[in-house]
Amino acid sequence: MKVRTRSSAIAGAACLIAALALTTASAEEPAARGTAAAQVSLKEVATAKNPAAGTAGPGGDVWIAERAGTVRVLGDQGLGEPVLDISGETTTDGERGLLGIAFDKDFAHFYISFTDREGTSTVDEFAVKDGKLQPDTRRTVLTQTQPYANHNGGDLRFGPDGYLYIALGDGGSGGDPHGNGQNLDTLLGKLLRIDPTGGDPYAVPADNPFVDDPKAKDEIWAYGLRNPWKFSFDSGTGDLLIGDVGQSAWEEIDWAPADSKGGENYGWSAMEGNHPFRGGTEPANHVPPIHEYDRNGLGCSVTGGYVYRGEKIPDLKGQYVFSDYCDGTLRSLQIENGQVTGEHDLGVNGGEVVSFVQGGNGELYVLDLGGTVSRIDPA
Length: 379
What we know:
Layout: H1 6-11, H2 13-16, E1 40-47, E2 51-56, E3 62-66, E4 70-75, E5 78-79, E6 84-85, E7 98-103, E8 109-115, E9 121-129, E10 132-144, E11 156-158, E12 164-168, E13 190-194, E14 220-223, E15 230-233, E16 240-244, E17 250-256, E18 271-272, E19 275-276, E20 291-294, E21 302-307, E22 319-324, E23 329-336, E24 339-349, E25 353-358, E26 364-368, E27 372-378
Antiparallel strand pairs: 1-27, 2-3, 3-4, 4-5, 4-6, 7-8, 8-9, 9-10, 11-12, 12-13, 13-14, 15-16, 16-17, 17-20, 18-19, 21-22, 22-23, 23-24, 25-26, 26-27
Keywords: Signal
Protein name: PQQ-dependent sugar dehydrogenase
InterPro entries: 6-blade_b-propeller_TolB-like, Glc/Sorbosone_DH, Quinoprot_gluc/sorb_DH_b-prop
């Protein structure tokens, strides 16, 4: 089997959708480690055009971003008409498009992360009134030029501290040719932390880890990332988890505790997971992943998810649910004090899993780039 990178996989999604069947079944395989796997199923709740991201919205609704540039709200009858359409402002070439959406904690502002027609990563803000976007209030918060059409990252969300975190890949191509992952003088290959309403166009929190380093960008929270496609905060503990897509051999999940002061170096491109990359030397401050897996199977591109904090599946509570774009199998990790104590195959396949969404009630949804929006339910 030819291993696909995320770039080639997304580009060929239209031809490959039929090859990855969406399975609705209970978990049957035993857990690799730890207690028995939770019994889950997938229930299709909507179809979308290349859903790429989602977030919990006002009133507990789930908002879904379609990669070509539209945002729609999930209701009882599926997805409604677009509440936002920027399809004329972006492109789906390479790994580009509308890649992330987020509300602040008061649902007073809505943020979108997309690549513009020139490929520049862009974060825009809209005011929200009575649960509706106010188009006239739109403004650009942050931009970052991209040297290539892949490894754009693009995920964003608010942390428990109320600040906006933004994930940017290393700029693309392969092997980090510009050395962006370890270079603190660029935003590429980083997780950023900003205060979008504290300044014009934003403010940098005074306790960001590199604000006193003249050789580093103040916005940087963590670095050494290749393509942090999806990240999340545990709504129960505040811990940070990042799914960082590997180069050719190892996929990784990184973790930081809620009381982290930032500054973590996750190793790329000196390291790929726990392994030196192309003869690289492990940085002295390298923070190794809490989980990695190789590409000897069907996996090719990790899709980070969420720690489950819903009520419908008690046996899954507190476990981190994630998948892989090429493999599609839903898996979970039991994590205690930053250490994985159990690994589980949940026995269901979400297709071309490109993202997860955490609803306002803590239940989780799975987005298949081919178009299916599913909810993780009890078996």
